[in-house]
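Supplementary Methods. Inverse-folding protocol.

Structures were first reduced to a discrete structure-token string of length 93. This string, shown here, constituted the complete conditioning input.
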């Protein structure tokens, strides 16, 4: 897993496993087979595809959209959308 501490002006789709400490102005998509840890902020949505994994310790100003991935939320998100009832987002205080 790579550690990144950068500011991204736009939206991205992950091409590798990332532990992220910076900010993303747009949305971020975690595709199947990728792992993502958010310790920074996302200005729009975080989309987690089926077969992907995400740990959210930071802030999502838009929606956290889980399409069937493995998601742990201990940070904050504007709205939560669980689209696969078999793989709900887990919350940790």
């Amino acid at each position: 897993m790579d550690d990144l501490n950068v500011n991204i002006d736009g939206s991205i789709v992950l091409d590798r496993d990332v532990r992220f400490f910076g900010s993303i102005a747009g949305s971020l998509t975690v595709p199947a087979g990728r792992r993502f840890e958010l310790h920074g902020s996302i200005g729009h949505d975080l989309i987690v595809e089926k077969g992907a994994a995400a740990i959210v310790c930071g802030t999502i100003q838009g929606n956290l959209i889980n399409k069937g991935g493995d998601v742990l939320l201990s940070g904050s998100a504007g709205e939560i959308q669980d689209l696969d009832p078999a793989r709900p987002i887990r919350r940790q205080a």
